[in-house]
Structure to design on (128 residues):
């Protein structure tokens, strides 16, 4: 895969974060999906309608939720992002690793792993 395609895939994922998480704009986020969207997070249904339900829930329950992408990597048809999420301003952060698979520049599959950032750490390294 060309470097240009890898960079384009990263831009697509960043636009998806902005639309779905920060702006809670289902239409803009869904425009970045492929013909099918397979979701591996058990709390979210497959497809654009599953994404709509998720975005609606975020808008209602966490209107100030923000995702700060700290690192983003692309290899082949996958993009991996290391993200700091904050549901409520001043609240605890969540460390997130999202994995997206793209086809023809569109997101077709998603996995995630999330962990609340603890208040104390046994090392000085931080999670980000």
């Amino acid at each position: 895969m060309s470097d240009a395609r890898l960079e384009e895939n990263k831009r697509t994922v960043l636009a998806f974060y902005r639309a779905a998480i920060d702006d809670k704009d289902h239409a803009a986020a869904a425009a970045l999906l492929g013909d099918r969207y397979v979701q591996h997070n058990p709390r979210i249904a497959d497809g654009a309608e599953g994404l709509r339900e998720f975005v609606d829930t975020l808008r209602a329950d966490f209107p100030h939720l923000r995702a700060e992408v700290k690192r983003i990597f692309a290899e082949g048809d996958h993009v991996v992002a290391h993200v700091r999420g904050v549901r409520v301003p001043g609240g605890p952060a969540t460390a997130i690793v999202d994995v997206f698979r793209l086809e023809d520049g569109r997101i077709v599959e998603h996995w995630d792993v999330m962990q609340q950032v603890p208040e104390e750490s046994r090392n000085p390294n931080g999670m980000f």
